[in-house]
Write a structure and sequence with these properties.
By secondary structure, the chain is mostly helical. It is built from four helices and two strands.
C-alpha cells in the first residue's frame, strides 16, 4: 500500500464513522396512512421481516422530485421493486481464468488507474 493510499484509506474510514443524516422524511399524510396499517398486523406472529431498503414505505424521498408542480416522490414497499435492484451493490466476482483473462485485465486496469491517481495527486503537492 502506497503512502497516498494509506491517506485515502484513513479519509474513507473517517467518512464512514462520521454521523450520517437521513434525507428521507415522512409526510403527515403518509404517517397517518402508515399508523393504522402497522396497528392491525402483529409483528410477533410471523417474526420480524428484514427490510432491504433503508427507507420505510410511504417515506418522502427528499431531493428526487426536482420538477415543479409534481407530487412528492414516496418510497414503495420492498417487494414493489424488481429483484435485480437489491443485487446492484453486491461486489462483482470475476472467475480467475488464468493469465491474460478478464479478471487479470480488470485487476491491471484498476492498478493502473490508481497509479495515475497517485501520480496526479503527488503533482499537486
Amino acid at each position: 500500500m502506497s503512502f497516498v493510499q494509506a491517506l485515502r484509506h484513513q479519509l474513507r474510514l473517517n467518512a464512514f464513522w462520521a454521523p450520517r443524516r437521513c434525507l428521507a422524511t415522512q409526510s403527515a399524510a403518509a404517517a397517518a396512512q402508515a399508523k393504522p396499517a402497522s396497528g392491525s398486523a402483529s409483528p410477533k406472529a410471523d417474526g420480524p421481516a428484514l427490510a432491504k431498503s433503508s427507507c420505510t414505505e410511504n417515506t418522502v424521498l427528499v431531493g428526487l422530485n426536482y420538477l415543479k408542480g409534481q407530487p412528492e416522490v414516496m418510497a414503495l414497499a420492498d417487494d414493489a421493486y424488481p429483484p435485480w435492484l437489491w443485487t446492484l451493490l453486491e461486489p462483482k466476482e470475476l472467475p480467475d481464468d488464468g493469465p491474460g483473462g478478464k479478471a487479470e485485465k480488470v485487476r491491471l486496469r484498476k492498478e493502473n488507474r490508481q497509479r495515475i491517481r497517485d501520480q496526479n495527486f503527488m503533482k499537486t503537492q
